[in-house]
DNA sequence: TATTGTTATACTCTATAACTATA
DNA sequence: TATAGTTATAGAGTATAACAATA
């Protein structure tokens, strides 16, 4: 069945990219989760609960993650003036710089793979991934 | 640039599929790594070092992973007659059944996404993923 | 009362270093 | 000596339950 081959390809592709992301994170002592946190915060300033939900993690897990990232000066906690229970999270300048740098390395690491496709195929792949990945299971 | 859009799509796709795999594993108290171990052992009987290298993990990490999976009756260690230092790893019948079951759930979970593509596009996507993912950075 | 976030606890995942057994 | 694997240790990631502060 074609759909089985596609599932296999998606899963294999996933572990391949996870490998690249993990390696690039590890070079800076960052886990895949921390790498993802930095990536998300590049253009957002969510509250703790929002970020936990987005990552699919418990809020207590996020407290620990943000504690450690804050201790390293990569993120900061801010008060929310509308609701004093809420804690907003955002990148420090150092965190933003690190995030941009690492995502540059991700692009660099994936470039050889991407260059195996001609421009038409790249566009096609982007379109197909968008089609497949919008609101999945 | 097109390649940036493709990198973004690949990374987003990766976290999406990781989310599906993590959820399906968690329903059986299996981490993403354990899920992957079971997936790999479906059709292989590697030695500890080979499996560690394939996963990109230290051999000591693998000892712990296999300890816990063995304690749950999912995998077993076997002696290697050629070299008595070597430990081979393989699935138990229970482990094989669980692995097949979970990978069935993965296919099921990804089916709605896949069904958003017509058969031609599915084939196309499989081909493009294969082209991109062979021996990446 | 309900929600937001933290803390305490326990377990898994992970790497490094030191070790045992075999080659 | 070198290689295969385990163990000891330490730290990060994770969820559950109990908690404090605010709504």
UniProtKB/TrEMBL annotation, chains A, B:
GO molecular-function term, one example from the UniProt record: DNA-binding transcription factor activity
GO terms under biological process: response to stress
Residues covered by the HTH marR-type domain: 3-134
Domain of life: Bacteria
PROSITE patterns reported in the protein's UniProt record: HTH_MARR_2
One matching Pfam family: MarR
InterPro entries: HTH_MarR-typ, MarR/SlyA-like, WH-like_DNA-bd_sf, WH_DNA-bd_sf
Transmembrane segments: none
Protein name: MarR family transcriptional regulator
């Amino acid at each position: 069945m074609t759909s089985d081959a596609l599932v296999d390809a998606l899963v294999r592709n996933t572990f391949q990219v996870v490998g690249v992301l993990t390696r690039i994170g590890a070079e800076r002592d960052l886990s895949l989760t921390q790498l993802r946190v930095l990536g998300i915060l590049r253009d957002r300033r969510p509250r703790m609960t929002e970020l936990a939900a987005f990552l699919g993690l418990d809020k207590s897990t996020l407290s620990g993650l943000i504690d450690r990232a804050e201790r390293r000066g990569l993120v900061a906690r801010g008060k929310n003036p509308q609701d004093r229970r809420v804690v907003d999270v955002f990148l420090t300048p150092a965190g933003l710089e690190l995030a941009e740098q690492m995502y540059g390395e991700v692009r660099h690491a994936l470039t050889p793979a991407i260059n195996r496709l001609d421009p038409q195929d790249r566009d096609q792949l982007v379109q197909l991934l968008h089609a497949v990945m919008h609101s999945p299971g």
